[in-house]
Amino acid sequence: MAAVKDNLLVITGPTATGKTAVSIRLAHEFNAEIVSADSRLVYRGMDIGTAKPSMKERDGIPHHLIDLVDPDEDFTVADFQRLAFGTIEDIISRRKNVIITGGTGLYIRSLTDNPSYQDQPPNADLRQQILDEIESRGNEALYEELADFDPEAAGKIHPNNIPRLVRALEVIKSTGRKFSDAVKEDMESATDSPYEFLQFGLDMDRELLYDRINRRVDQMIADGWVDEVQGLLDSGLTVNEKPMTGLGYRSIVSFLRGETSLDEAVELVKRDTRRFAKRQMTWFRGTDGISWIRVAKDTPPSDTADKIADKIRGSFRC
Fold it and tell me: Where are the domains of the chain?
């Protein structure tokens, strides 16, 4: 007889839909700890611009895979997968349940689909050469190179997604193989996950979501995001390093360099975040196994958590 797999709860969806607040309420009800599946939260010192939950917001619930590395350190999806599986095992061994929370679809898929990543080791010198080329020629020129050699990979990478663009070119230049072929090999080597996943996505009317995004960006500015970015630059980070290419950071850097006004930078951040949320929904809508929960304008997180709780009650062994 096959062993009974532990059930893990996944709360996902676009940015600004309230995933953290809902997850914390569910964690209290189901004796659970939270494993973050947000690629931005792994970096120390990048708190405001990533909407990292404060200790007060965490409300006594342990959150894992947050503040793992400094912004100048590499961190890959393979690293996430390895650490996440180890963390999950530790939580379960302590007779507690697991809630995976975040909007990085690739991180979540690394757990649900369990690909065996044939991770090409980072080549720091080559990566710097590619970044230097982006600085001198522009990312569009490098994107065209990718499209010429590997159109399939280019079709899945946005020209402004510098980390993915650099990684694709790094693998191509290191191995002489198409990046898309390497990704396919990872997925073809997938093995059955040791867990069952109860996946729920939070969704809301687009106008409401965009309003929440705009308000959150305004609050980030009020909380001191500009000073946070200046501190990162003062520490020696450059605008092309992976964490600084994260959502909104380049726009704030443009303001600090005197290239735009603060109002212009803020509007760019809002626009880019809205576009990012749209891309997230495209990803998640193409993912099997997610049950969607519609969040209305005045719906408190407790009500959304109650809807999910009613659907999963009895699904955990402890």
Answer: 6-114+191-312, 124-188
